[in-house]
């Protein structure tokens, strides 16, 4: 039997009775809806009644949190997220989120319980950055639980995203960049070029080792960037789309393009020499491609190997005077250098591959002492000319 209660402001509570339990208590299922016409109300009531009496209603409404997580993994995470992102999310889930909520029915979890969870893990020492990761996972879980009809409302919407101050990035100024370029001459040629691609073109490490011989336009001195090497526990090492899934064309110094051209020729010669022993790497379309940076058999380097190479270089005794930065900080250095040279922020956004210009402004607009000095000179000259 179905009925409804008018709550006012076009809001109604739908009620469906499913008989009585062993103690004689009426089994009633409810759902709140907002409709503007009687016809729409009757349709909502009819659909809800059919849904309640369907065979899967009880199973869905009684679904435990841990069981829903598996459905979320299968129907969303594996289809939409990159393998390395899934790895991060699984760490949060397995170590923290699932143990806390696993036996609870997901439809019964409240906003207050979510707030209690964040308070609890924060007390146990989970840092601000990791807390933000926990929040992303929980928001995603409850978003899809609501979209898929397992919960009536998204109780995570009222849980404020944890905020933290992003650590100031370490970057090299122009003088330090010049010193670095001189020092890396002791490295193998391909390692030098890797570093230059991050420093002169703003490429991420996965994008650097994902470049193929077909991505280069030697006439225009540009590089097509639309893939990256990623490594995950679920998928291993493979080529995938870039972080924001957009193709971009990046300008490069003519001298650097010549160095890349020489490396590409060597890779092609090595491929021909190895013959059937050469494995290569599968591109996004399944075709085999020749990577500019790879093992002798054409299989890709891991992103972590790039980090290790750069760290070992900086740890050499003769480089003690160089600031210890990460490989990714070379990209930050490139962005800041371009900004200080007066390059339009929109151009820098496109070079770096940011989907939102706010990311460029908020994350990469680091100002070095050189930048402040130039600003001071500009104001000084303006002051003198105004007297």
TrEMBL record:
<keyword id="KW-0233">DNA recombination</keyword>
<dbReference type="InterPro" id="IPR011010">
    <property type="entry name" value="DNA_brk_join_enz"/>
</dbReference>
<dbReference type="InterPro" id="IPR044068">
    <property type="entry name" value="CB"/>
</dbReference>
<dbReference type="InterPro" id="IPR013762">
    <property type="entry name" value="Integrase-like_cat_sf"/>
</dbReference>
<dbReference type="GO" id="GO:0015074">
    <property type="term" value="P:DNA integration"/>
</dbReference>
<dbReference type="InterPro" id="IPR004107">
    <property type="entry name" value="Integrase_SAM-like_N"/>
</dbReference>
<comment type="similarity">
    <text>Belongs to the 'phage' integrase family.</text>
</comment>
<dbReference type="GO" id="GO:0003677">
    <property type="term" value="F:DNA binding"/>
</dbReference>
<dbReference type="Pfam" id="PF00589">
    <property type="entry name" value="Phage_integrase"/>
</dbReference>
<dbReference type="InterPro" id="IPR002104">
    <property type="entry name" value="Integrase_catalytic"/>
</dbReference>
<dbReference type="InterPro" id="IPR050090">
    <property type="entry name" value="Tyrosine_recombinase_XerCD"/>
</dbReference>
<keyword id="KW-0229">DNA integration</keyword>
<protein>
    <submittedName>
        <fullName>Site-specific integrase</fullName>
    </submittedName>
</protein>
<feature type="domain" description="Core-binding (CB)">
    <location>
        <begin position="63"/>
        <end position="146"/>
    </location>
</feature>
<dbReference type="GO" id="GO:0006310">
    <property type="term" value="P:DNA recombination"/>
</dbReference>
<keyword id="KW-0238">DNA-binding</keyword>
<feature type="domain" description="Tyr recombinase">
    <location>
        <begin position="167"/>
        <end position="377"/>
    </location>
</feature>
<dbReference type="InterPro" id="IPR010998">
    <property type="entry name" value="Integrase_recombinase_N"/>
</dbReference>
<dbReference type="Pfam" id="PF14659">
    <property type="entry name" value="Phage_int_SAM_3"/>
</dbReference>
């Amino acid at each position: 039997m179905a009925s409804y209660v008018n709550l006012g402001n076009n809001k109604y509570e739908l009620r469906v009775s499913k008989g009585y339990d062993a103690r004689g208590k009426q089994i009633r299922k409810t759902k709140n809806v907002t409709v503007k016409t009687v016809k729409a109300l009757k349709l909502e009531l009819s659909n809800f009644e059919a849904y309640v009496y369907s065979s899967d209603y009880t199973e869905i409404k009684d679904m435990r949190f841990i069981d829903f997580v598996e459905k979320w993994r299968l129907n969303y995470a594996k289809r939409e997220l990159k393998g390395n992102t899934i790895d991060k999310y699984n760490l949060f889930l397995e170590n923290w989120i699932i143990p806390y909520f696993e036996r609870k029915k997901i439809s019964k979890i409240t906003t207050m319980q979510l707030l209690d969870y964040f308070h609890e893990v924060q007390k146990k020492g989970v840092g601000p950055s990791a807390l933000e990761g926990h929040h992303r996972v929980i928001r995603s879980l409850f978003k899809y639980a609501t979209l898929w009809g397992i919960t009536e409302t998204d109780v995570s919407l009222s849980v404020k995203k944890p905020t933290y101050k992003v650590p100031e990035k370490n970057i090299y100024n122009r003088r330090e960049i010049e010193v670095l370029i001189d020092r890396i001459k002791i490295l193998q040629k391909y390692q030098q070029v890797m570093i230059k691609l991050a420093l002169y073109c703003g490429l991420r490490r996965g994008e650097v080792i994902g470049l193929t011989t077909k991505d280069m336009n030697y006439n225009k001195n540009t590089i097509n960037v639309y893939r990256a090497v990623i490594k995950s526990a679920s998928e291993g090492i493979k080529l995938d789309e870039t972080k924001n899934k957009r193709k971009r064309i990046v300008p490069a110094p003519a001298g650097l393009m010549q160095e890349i051209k020489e490396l590409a020729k060597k890779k092609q010669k090595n491929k021909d020499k190895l013959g059937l022993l050469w494995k290569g790497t599968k591109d996004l379309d399944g075709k085999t491609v020749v990577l500019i940076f790879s093992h002798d058999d054409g299989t890709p380097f891991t992103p972590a190997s790039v980090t290790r190479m750069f760290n070992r270089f900086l740890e050499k005794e003769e480089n003690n005077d160089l600031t210890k930065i990460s490989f990714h900080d070379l990209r930050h250095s490139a962005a800041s250098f371009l900004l200080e040279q007066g390059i339009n922020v929109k151009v820098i956004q496109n070079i770096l591959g940011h989907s939102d210009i706010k990311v460029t402004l908020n994350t990469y607009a680091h100002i070095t002492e050189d930048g402040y000095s130039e600003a001071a000179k500009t104001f000084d000259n303006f002051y003198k000319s105004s007297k």
